[in-house]
UniProtKB/TrEMBL annotation:
Keyword hit for Transmembrane helix: no
Source species: Gammaproteobacteria bacterium LSUCC0057
First-level EC class: transferase
Keyword Transferase (UniProt): yes
E.C. number: 2.6.1.17
Name of the protein described by the UniProt record: Succinyldiaminopimelate transaminase
Keywords, ordered alphabetically: Aminotransferase, Transferase
Cofactor dependency: pyridoxal 5'-phosphate
């Protein structure tokens, strides 16, 4: 077996299962899960007719690169959403369909990291999506974390890392809007990342799968490719972005997304994927084309989340300290007791599952962990369930005081 497998940490939900196994929840209360970011809103209505019309496509082997029609649809969406130009974004060179961002993020690290170089480094925000870490470790790299703390608006302070780290860095992961904080990077934040990438010769990978779940319809979050355009980086050099239909279109089971950006990087990534065996089925491509072409269901999706944030925020604000996030579907409140104890006791008393923040973070050299004393609440359930969960959390918090 690959000895690097022994470096992997248990996945957060494995830890959560063990934490919950030690207690018995009240059976008279129905379980409400706010722990996993799995959208529960209905799938768009246009999906079912496509399934019926194009099911015969499952009889064909798809190409690794995906059909030109899908890549053109994705490129057109990128141009509309991120103010890019059709002449500057070539569907044939700058876009590659993938089976969801999780698969693509993992595979991209395997293709990018050169383990023959001495002590390669991958820099990741902290807290973080654990695929960043696992992919880096299995590719033979060391992971260096940059804390995303409330005093800096939950934006990782890249300038805090020493030059010795950047000299070994091969890949920088960004996540904006952030998971679990919902923080959105500014143009200045992106500019700093790009200046470091140019100075020290590494790749910037921006996970933007929450980009369409924003609160203010007039202020959609900035993306890395848009930042490139504004900074005159029209070739997107050293930059790739990852997008998905899971959160945007409530299609987590479709496993459909894309990678876009630097044409040379995507050419090599396509070569890797040709051997990786991860082609997107033509049926999935048809549904994806329809989803990337439609904004009405995305806007309706945002309104559903905004209603939940308003209702849950009103209930919990008197009892827990948190900021309503600019984007995403998570709340990231501080807890009055240890976050693991909070999650375990809440489950035992109120049959509500939340994820301890320390499961999403790593401690620094001094033992400080930016996830300690926080929990992640995924507002993915229906509005009534989210309100019921918030009321139960409020009741639980009152017992603590």
């Amino acid at each position: 077996m690959n000895p690097r497998l022994n470096q992997l940490h248990p996945y957060p939900f494995e830890k959560l299962r063990a934490l919950k196994a030690a207690v018995t929840p009240p059976s008279q209360l129905p379980h409400i899960a706010l722990s996993i970011g799995e959208p529960q809103h209905p799938v768009p209505e246009f999906v079912a007719p496509i399934l019926q019309q194009h099911s015969a496509m499952l009889g064909n082997y798809p190409t690794t690169k995906g059909g030109l029609a899908l890549r053109e649809t994705i490129a057109a969406w990128l141009c509309r959403r991120f103010n890019l130009t059709a002449t500057g974004l070539d569907p044939d060179r700058h876009v590659l369909p993938v089976n969801g961002t999780r698969e693509a993020l993992f595979a991209f690290s395997q293709a990018i990291i050169d383990s023959s170089q001495p002590a390669p480094v991958v820099v990741s925000p902290n807290p973080f999506y654990q695929i960043y870490e696992g992919a880096a470790l299995l590719a033979g790299a060391e992971v260096v974390f940059v804390d995303a703390q409330s005093e800096h608006g939950f934006i990782p302070q890249l300038q805090s890392l020493p030059e010795s780290v950047w000299q070994r860095c091969q890949l920088l992961h960004l996540c904006s809007p952030g998971n679990p904080t919902g923080a959105v990077m500014s143009l200045d934040d992106y500019q700093l990342a790009l200046e470091l990438a140019d100075r020290y010769n590494f790749v910037v990978a921006s996970d933007e799968c929450y980009s369409e779940l924003y609160r203010d319809e007039l202020k959609p979050p900035l993306g890395l490719l848009d930042a490139c355009r504004q900074l005159g980086r029209d070739d997107f050099s050293r930059c790739v972005v990852f997008h998905s239909l899971s959160k945007r279109s409530n299609l987590p089971g479709l496993r459909s997304g894309f990678v876009a950006g630097d044409a040379q990087l995507l050419q090599q990534f396509l070569l890797y994927r040709t051997y990786h065996g991860c082609s997107m089925s033509e049926l999935t491509q048809q549904i994806s084309q329809a989803a990337w072409s439609d904004e009405a269901h995305v806007s309706a999706n945002r309104q559903l989340y905004n209603a939940k944030f308003a209702a849950v925020g009103e209930i919990l604000a008197p009892l827990l300290d948190f900021n309503l996030p600019t984007a995403g579907f998570y709340l990231w409140p501080q807890t009055p007791i240890d976050d693991c104890d909070f999650a375990q006791q809440l489950f035992a008393q109120q049959h509500v599952t939340v994820l301890p923040g320390q499961y999403l973070s790593r401690p620094d050299g001094n033992g400080a962990n930016p996830g300690y004393g926080r929990v992640r609440l995924a507002l993915v359930a229906e509005l009534d369930d989210c309100i019921s969960a918030a009321q139960r959390i409020a009741q639980f918090c009152q017992t603590l005081s």
